[in-house]
Design goal:
Number of domains of chain B: 1
Strand order of the largest sheet of chain A: 1-2-8-11-10-9
Distance between the termini of chain B: 27 Å
Shape of chain B: globular
CATH superfamily of chain A: Probable tRNA modification gtpase trme, domain 1
Radius of gyration of chain A: 17 Å
CATH architecture of chain A: 2-Layer Sandwich
Oligomer: heterodimer
Number of helices of chain B: 2
Largest interface: A-B, 11 and 13 residues
Structural class of chain B: alpha+beta
Number of domains of chain A: 1
Shape of chain A: globular
Order of helices and strands of chain B: EEEHEEEH
Strand order of the largest sheet of chain B: 3-4-5-6
Strand content of chain A: 25-35%
Helix content of chain A: 10-25%
Structural class of chain A: alpha+beta
CATH class of chain B: Alpha Beta
Number of helices of chain A: 4
Number of strands of chain A: 11
Strand content of chain B: 25-35%
Largest sheet of chain A: 6 strands, antiparallel
Chain lengths: ~190, ~110
């Protein structure tokens, strides 16, 4: 078996917020009818939480489930569990019209930590990052400069950003530049 | 900047998150169509100064197609609605009528 490594292998940078590449993360794309009972049951069995509401994102320490579109969920799990999780979903949803694919190696995840984490994202994405407009329990798919990305709040001072692995370096450079000391916006 | 609310995910997306899909409510002509009907489908487009219906895709977001009704002159948005329809829904038409009485666009008014 090959030795799987993440795109930037945990590289980190500290500006007015700290950017850390998060290493390997299990990610499963699950598509199908999100309102169907077998789908709800399968998601519950795997992650321990129900199918989230529109743009919802439910996280636990090891797992998570996020609403990607009206017919798509993102399931987060430990990297080494992803294959087994896909098999589990495929078994639970057999006979349904669905897709479960292990996308772990297609993605990179960054964490932005610090009280000014929101400012870093606000500089790059066309999203209102005010406390009242974006809060915990929500996922936002958008773009960071020219790269498609999605992010959610792990806690009040930690934003996790997900992007394509092929764009990991570009996104890391963007985040580093946006977190440059002295360029704080003072917002949020 | 044009800001449209995606009816599929509820996000207020600005145009940098969206991909334009051209005119909405075009009837596709195919095998067996007359040359005139096919020409109409293939080449003829509305080019209004005022009320217009367009297709958009929330490309940097949920990825879904939807419809939007807006004014090409003022960039005022009358509403967005599902892509799974052949014509603008009644509430969108009513919203346009309230602001642009007597409007007409293609076969709709």
């Amino acid at each position: 078996m090959s030795n799987a490594v993440s795109a930037l292998q945990g590289e980190a940078h500290t500006g007015f917020a700290t950017i850390t590449e998060q290493g390997l993360r299990g990610m499963i794309t699950l598509r199908g009818d999100l309102s169907a009972a077998p789908m709800k049951k399968a998601v519950k069995a795997l992650t321990g939480s129900g199918v989230p509401q529109m743009r919802g994102c439910v996280l636990s320490d090891s797992h998570g489930v996020a609403w990607m579109s009206p017919d798509e969920l993102l399931i987060l799990c430990p990297y080494t569990h992803a294959e087994a999780a896909v098999a589990e979903l495929s078994k639970a949803l057999a006979g349904q019209h669905f897709l479960a694919a292990n996308m772990s190696d297609a993605r990179a995840v960054f964490a932005i930590t610090g009280s000014a984490a929101r400012q870093v994202v606000a500089k790059l994405a066309p999203v209102d990052m005010a406390q009242s407009a974006f809060s915990e329990g929500e996922i936002r798919r958008t773009r960071l400069a020219q790269a498609p990305a999605a992010f959610w709040l792990r806690d009040a001072e930690m934003i996790e950003v997900m992007c394509f692995r092929s764009q990991a370096e570009y996104v890391f450079e963007l985040l580093k530049r946006a977190a440059q000391p002295g360029s704080e916006t003072g917002l949020f | 900047m044009l800001v449209l609310t995606c009816p599929c995910c509820g996000v207020e997306a600005d145009e940098t998150e969206l991909a334009a899909g051209g005119q909405a409510h075009i009837k596709r002509e195919t095998v067996g169509a007359s040359d005139d009907a096919f020409e109409e489908y293939m080449f003829m487009r509305e080019n209004p100064k005022g009320v217009h219906f367009e297709r958009w895709r929330h490309a940097n977001g949920c990825g879904k197609w939807f419809h939007a009704a807006r004014c090409t002159m003022t960039l005022e948005v009358f509403g967005t609605y599902t892509a799974q329809t052949y014509e603008p829904p009644a509430d969108i038409r009513a919203a346009i009528t309230a602001k642009r009485p007597g409007w007409s666009w293609g076969r709709f008014s």
